[in-house]
Amino acid sequence: MKHKALIIAMSVSISTVILILVLYDYMGRRAADALNFQGEEAERLSIRQQFLQELSSKEHMPQESVQQISGYYDAKVNDYYVKVTYKDEPDVVYVYDKNTKGQFVLMHILAEGGTQPDDRLKHKHRFSPAP
């Protein structure tokens, strides 16, 4: 009888350890997925390239006019967007999003030191939504 109780206790203990290890692995993966709020690197690079191509083809502006461009992922809307700084306006960051038609649209203008008057912004018309 003692031998049988020992076997049952060992089986329960081993099953508990295995269950804990499986849950630990599962929870670790879920936490890592939840923390990956930056999106896929390939997608962030792709949206940057798409923006540069559209800037050249639709806005007739050379890619060299861009000082800095970064692709980002917005976990709230589950989509990517770009932040662009032009060489002739180094203190202003333009934020462009892709609409449902796959076209870039100006969403925000971030000016260092506060908001500048619209008439001073050189690129506010680029990819602006139609009024």
Report on this model:
With 131 residues, the protein is α+β, with helices and mostly antiparallel strands. It is built from 2 helices and 4 strands; from the N terminus they run ααββββ. A hairpin with a 5-residue loop joins β3 and β4. It is rod-shaped and about 90 Å long. It holds the Pfam family DUF3139. This is DUF3139 domain-containing protein.
Question: Topology of this protein?
Answer:
Blueprint: H1 2-35, H2 41-57, E1 66-74, E2 79-86, E3 89-98, E4 104-111
Instruction: Provide mean pLDDT, rounded.
Output: 79
Strand percentage lies at 25-35%
The SS-based structural class is alpha+beta
Helical content stands at 25-40%
Shape: rod-shaped
Strands side by side in the biggest sheet: 1-2-3-4
**What's the order of the H and E elements?**
HHEEEE
Number of helices: 2
Compute the CA-based radius of gyration: 26 Å
End-to-end Cα distance: 85 Å
Low-pLDDT runs of 5+ residues are: none
Short description:
With 131 residues, the protein is α+β, with helices and mostly antiparallel strands. It has helices at residues 2-35, 41-57, and strands at residues 66-74, 79-86, 89-98, 104-111. This is DUF3139 domain-containing protein.
Please tag this protein with its features.
131 residues, alpha+beta
